[in-house]
Design goal:
single chain, 176 residues, alpha+beta, 3-stranded antiparallel sheet, 4 helices, 20% strand, elongated
Amino acid sequence: MHKRRWKLSGGSRAGKIKLIFIILGVVVVGGGGAAVFLLKGRAAETETGEGEAGEGEAVAGKQEPAQIVELGEFLANLTSQNQLRYLQMEVALSIRGEGLEGEGGGHGGEAKPELPREDLLKAKDVIVAKASAQKFATLRTPTGKQQFKETLKKALGQALPDYQIEEVLFVSFVMQ
């Protein structure tokens, strides 16, 4: 048998390149359309509470997003050998709870979420006490700062049992 070889004949090099670009364009547009279709379907499942939870299952207790509560600036003496050392920091909390006042996030004139005065004072007391017990040498390291955050998170969780502390945020952190 005789084998036939197919050739693109009669076309210039520019024509072949043009054909390749047209084919690539069709593939990209088709792939983009498929991606939009698939992602749009996922978004609809998420909005209706389906998807990973399953069609017939109800989504259990939709949790409110954590709010950022600014606690303000703190100044504390640090323990150090033979020198007086200071820590100045501004702290915020990523927190969940029913008792937050002025929830809304602060956009468009909305009130920023705040802790009730009694809880705010408890939180500030815990932060000052824990900060004053820290060693200058420890807080100089990234690991020391992270451990201090974990210490604060645990202590604040105990002092404020009505709230779920997600994260302690250092907005500023200066030692001298």
